[in-house]
Structures
1.
Amino acid sequence: MASELFTEPAAQPRRSPTDRAGAPVTLRPGLRPRQRTAPDAETTGQETAGDEPRLRQLMGVCGWAAVLGGIGLVIGIRDLIAVLTQSSPSWFEPVMAVIGLVGIVLTVGGFLTVHRQRAPWIFLGAGSAVLIAGMIVTSAAL
């Protein structure tokens, strides 16, 4: 009786794939049946987070962020000189501080979402728009 409790049922023989008519399907040598996987992001319209970003996308995000950082640094140094020499209006310093912080947050957001397909480009595009706004404010105030 104890041996009956611990015995497993006999495994069912594995069935070969059949077509709609019930005839067995044979595959060419080297081919295997397709495994069912989760639907791709393109078919569902959703972005999926992969384990690691593509190298091309990572290089693009790094390059774009480096350009934003370099231009932002030049604008920031120009603004710092204007504030230290007191040749700027009183509203200039807080406005440029906010513009700079928003640009930094958007660029960091681009890095943090690098494993996504479109999100880093959206963040870096918004960061570029903020950088252009900083250029316009600087040229208007000085």
2.
Amino acid sequence: MISTKIKWFSGLLAAVFLSVLCASSVWAEADDGEMEDPFEGKPPLADQIKEFSDEIAKRIHKELQELLDKELKVLKKERKKNRYTVEERIMKQEGIIKDDPKNAKAHFALGEVYDEIRDGANAIVHTQIAEQLFKEQKNKMGLAESRRNLRWFFEKYGYKPEDFMLN
């Protein structure tokens, strides 16, 4: 939704810019062959352009602000709906793992929760388990995401892969 509005604003700005360029180079030819100023008796073109662009900028700013306010409200609502404590999220993922120890997504999610609370060792262990399970399941996307997180966790927490050898 945001990208549609931004594209609309971009198109509007382009149209305004083109019309200003065209208007600045438009001159009417009089009957006697001389060029005459079509803006004669009006404020200078630069003043007209500035006034017009100020008005457009105000409208764009207002529309964009309204759009951003709407999106912020939606995000806040979703955040409230999905707000679980870290302990609840850990318990949920551990429950899933207890029922299905080969659930790679649960191990991956648990690794990310442990990372949120800065428990690097548990984050790495569960992400390594997820990596192994994703590899067995031939899930390339999960495998790539696990490896990306592992690289990040090793760097972030100062560990080396040798510190965590899985059987």
